[in-house]
Amino acid sequence: MTATTGAARSAHPERPGRSDGVCSEFTVFTRIKPGEADALREDLATLSDAADDERVHAAVRQIGTLHDARHVIFDNDTRFMFASVFDGSWDTYIDDFAQTVVGARFDKVFSHSEGFPGVTDPGVKDWFVAHQAPAGVFVSAYPELTVQQIFKDQRVDDAFQDVLDTPEFRAALNNPANAELVATPAFQKLLAEASA
Length: 196
Known about the structure:
196 residues; four-stranded antiparallel beta sheet
């Protein structure tokens, strides 16, 4: 997803959270149900163990807008925080999670929070809004890059690095017929960036 300038206002109500370029932050603070902090901790450990799970990474790639996420238990095991950074609209972000394997994991983790209706419940967005606290300051290191652009940049870089490592590329660099191209500032910059 990419942000558009001059786009029509969303049909959805204004949502809390700060943005920097195409990136937005989402931070939710909840009360943990009495006596359920250890169960929540176990569910988070399972979630953490599954961080390399192909299905989770595939779901995150399918959602395609999540930069990062973190879960924290605090205040003597009485409160829980979920925070993430995403691209695009808040409503789409919540909807996308409900439609993947990540939604089931969200249900499991947030089931330990007081009043959580379930990620597919029609009232879940109102629940999140009621528990969301916008950051005082939010800064992205790459405010104009969506997750999809970062994925593409990584694929292009991987392919370019593969080309750089071939004997054919080295031969082309040393070929006198290419000397004029190789000497251009743009090509020299490309080589410098590739070797950095």
